[in-house]
């Protein structure tokens, strides 16, 4: 049963105002040292999938740089979860639409940790529009900058510092294969991310750097009530075969697997976490 009621926030949204509260694995995720000694950058890590990934990485033994826009309260909570796991948390606010900030994220991680093994490109923006005429030019450009161009700038900055065995993981979406028309810009960027991850897996293979992507379905994060009409939020996710929205905690184990040395021969993969809806 899906019990998500109608609700709306202004972008980028706050976790504390969501009903029901999303599950990031606070009470359920148990680590087993699978990322011991690694350092990771996770963008969009203040909330949602990014928070769940940061929490899981820390409980698996990794230090984490928490990149976020300006959701300071949410970011502090993610940092607390990382530190409670006994790992170092670094919080860095700023806009990944700015290439210089993308480079600063990688520089800060290297400064704080002295090394970098994992890059998770997860920050994203979307906005619902029923017609192409409604989409402002500036919003189109900004969506591409945040979702797609940031992946390029972050990877370009990180690759010279990633060791053989390093891992790049990108968040794509089921929408890239089955695009709902009201999310034109977002869908296009997610298809581009999937393509870029596939390209980079081949380009970086000779360096021993693995590149994979995760394609979530409807996941209950602040992005949903802050970018969709309230009436569309009600019952969010009930259209998939499992009949409900996914929780961020249900994504984290896939990111852990792809970041870990257990996935030493997994590169160029795209893993669906969609509640039963296949991707092509």
Provide key terms for this protein.
280 residues; single chain; Rossmann fold; globular; 8 helices; alpha/beta
Short description:
The protein has 280 residues and is of the alpha/beta class. It has eight helices and seven strands, in the order βαβαβαβαβαβαααβ.
Query: H/E series, N to C?
Result: EHEHEHEHEHEHHHE
Identify the strand order in the major beta sheet.
3-2-1-4-5-6-7
Strand content: 5-15%
Question: Going by CATH, what is the homologous superfamily?
Answer: NAD(P)-binding Rossmann-like Domain
Mean pLDDT: 95
Give the uncertain stretches in residue-range form. Answer: none
Please write out the topology:
Elements: E1 39-43, H1 48-59, E2 63-68, H2 72-84, E3 89-93, H3 99-113, E4 118-121, H4 137-158, E5 167-171, H5 184-203, E6 210-216, H6 223-227, H7 230-233, H8 252-259, E7 270-273
Parallel strand pairs: 1-2, 1-4, 2-3, 4-5, 5-6, 6-7
Could you characterize what this model shows?
- With 280 residues, the protein is α/β, with parallel strands linked by helices.
- The chain has one domain (15-273): Rossmann fold, CATH 3.40.50.720.
- The chain has helices spanning 48-59, 72-84, 99-113, 137-158, 184-203, 223-227, 230-233, 252-259, and strands spanning 39-43, 63-68, 89-93, 118-121, 167-171, 210-216, 270-273.
- The chain has a seven-stranded parallel sheet, sandwiched between helices.
- Helix 1 runs parallel beside helix 2 (72-84) and helix 1 crosses helix 8.
- It starts with 38 loop residues before the first strand and ends in a 7-residue tail after the last strand.
- The model has no long low-confidence stretch (mean pLDDT 95).
